[in-house]
Amino acid sequence: MNILITLCARGGSKGIPGKNIRPINGRPLISISIDLAKHFAEKHQADLALSTDDIEIKNVAAQFGLQTNYSRPTNLATDTAGKIETIADLLYYEEKSRTKQYDFVLDLDITSPLRTFEDLEEAFNIISKDEKALNLFSVNHAARNPYFNMVEQQPNGYYGLIKKGEFVTRQSAPNVYDLNASFYFYRRTFFESGNTKTITDKSLIYVMPHICFDLDHPIDFEFMEFLMANNKLTFQL
Question: For 150-194, how does the pLDDT look when each residue is reduced to its tens digit (9 = 90+)?
Fold first, then answer.
């Protein structure tokens, strides 16, 4: 079984400038994902690949053992470029360069690094057992529930629950989940099917048993660094 592990790191971050290689708890952010990718690759004989348009990111990644001759095309390095087409372009490049075809792609999001080797192993086991599944993505239990305490504007201009149901407590409503943008497994058939969005009619989830969130704003970076520096995480990265 051939697995490609992808790390996608665009250079032009606006929310947190330079966040992919910004130091966090004494090391570049990208190095956390590289180390985990190497660990998973060692067990599963997987290949690693980097997609970036930024030479500085390339240089930092190389310092931690991830080198590449691939450069992300300009049209995939914009704010509007989709993640799926970015991964697909890298996948086809690696297959051509290595003269092999992959069965699975594991994409590790650099800006959501609070995941463990055990998370990846358990998630891979889930999707491996379901041959019809196209992909799997990591989630956490949602703090808000659309059946109970999330509203949207109705056609009449007033506001009502997003999902309808006769629930009087949040606990009695169906479980819902937040995508935490940490990792994604894709079967190669996902890309052959022409999907442009992560969520399909054959998607699976892996529910993380611990905290996980991505870095969207500067305060997120400070919060995550505090957790790491003060040993507040309940798991080992």
Answer: 999 999 999 999 998 888 887 888 999 999 999 999 999 999 988
In DSSP notation, 81-139 reads --HHHHHHHHHHHHHHHHT---SEEEEEPTT-----HHHHHHHHHHHHH-TT--EEEEE
Q: Which residues contact 40 (CB under 8 A, 6 or more apart)?
A: 5, 46, 106, 117, 120, 121
Distances (CA, A) of 118 to 114, 126, 137, 184, 227: 12, 12, 15, 14, 20
> pTM (2 decimals)?
0.94
> Which range is least confidently modeled, 29-33, 89-93, 122-126, 192-196?
192-196
Does 182 map to a domain? yes
- Is residue 70 a contact partner of residue 88, using CB atoms and an 8 Å limit? no
The per-residue pLDDT for range 124-155, each reduced to its tens digit, is 999 999 999 999 999 999 989 999 889 999 99
Distance CA 73, CA 93 (A): 11
CATH of the domain at 221: 3.90.550.10
Does any domain span residue 189? yes
